[in-house]
Design a protein that fits this description.
By secondary structure, the chain is mainly β. The protein contains 3 helices and 13 strands; from the N terminus they run H-E-E-E-E-E-E-E-E-H-E-E-E-E-E-H. The strands form 2 sheets. It has a 9-stranded antiparallel β-sheet. A hairpin with a 2-residue loop joins strand 6 and strand 7. The longest helix is centred in the last third of the chain and has 15 residues. It is elongated, with a radius of gyration of 23 Å.
Length: 207
């Protein structure tokens, strides 16, 4: 009842950390009068007022803690990239031999031109997060692109992109979505994948 009186029965924030091997933390209410929170620490068993200027991190959103780009990694860490353009699926297997890279599209058995593949990989690295999307699920949206990236560390990153507007694509990672990406960059990735499939050379564009 005491917690409920201060809006702490359903806390707006929960902060935890470990100090000298001991887990500590506190919970807060919603922001009150745009100036402070009620905060409760189980360790201290005390409810206090916490001025908002002393805890600016409580107002940060997830986007404040992530990089602008959907995926970041050196190509030497990548072992497999699976691309689905909604019509076909292409599986690129990357074999790293010393400083050389050999890429094979396993469905066709075709060896891919390495410099062109590097440009395609660069288009993946360029997939930029623009901000929060106004939807949380892709329900009712048309899928544009699926990317599954596997690393030598056993990690798998599964991205899907759906049309939001002419300029934005709703992005999910492992089925969870919150942000949109620049649709021009998604289309660039699709275009370069198509060029790989057709055996066309992808020239670096430094503009």
């Amino acid at each position: 009842k005491v917690l409920a009186k201060y809006g702490l029965d359903k806390p707006a924030n929960q902060v935890e950390w470990t100090y000298n091997g001991e887990k500590q933390g506190f919970i807060t209410s919603e922001l009150v009068d745009d100036s402070f929170y009620f905060a409760y620490s189980e360790y201290m068993d005390t409810i206090v007022t916490l001025p908002s200027e002393n805890a600016p991190f409580l107002e940060f959103g997830l986007i404040d803690f992530i990089e602008d780009y959907a995926f970041r990694s050196n190509i030497t860490n990548i072992t497999e990239i699976i691309v689905n353009d909604t019509k076909n699926t292409y599986v690129y297997l990357l074999e790293h031999k010393d400083k050389d890279l050999v890429v094979t599209e396993s469905t066709s058995g075709k060896v891919i031109d390495t410099p062109s593949f590097r440009q395609f990989f660069l288009s993946i690295l360029n997939l930029k997060i623009g901000g929060y999307a106004d939807v949380k699920t892709p329900e009712g949206l048309d899928k544009e692109l699926s990317l599954t990236i596997k690393t030598k560390f056993g990690e798998t990153y599964a991205y899907e992109f759906y049309t939001l507007s002419t300029m934005r694509s709703f992005m999910t990672l492992s089925g969870t979505g919150e942000f949109y990406a620049d649709r021009n960059l998604v289309n660039s990735c699709l275009e370069k994948n198509g060029m790989l499939v057709r055996g066309e050379t992808i020239v670096a564009d430094y503009r």
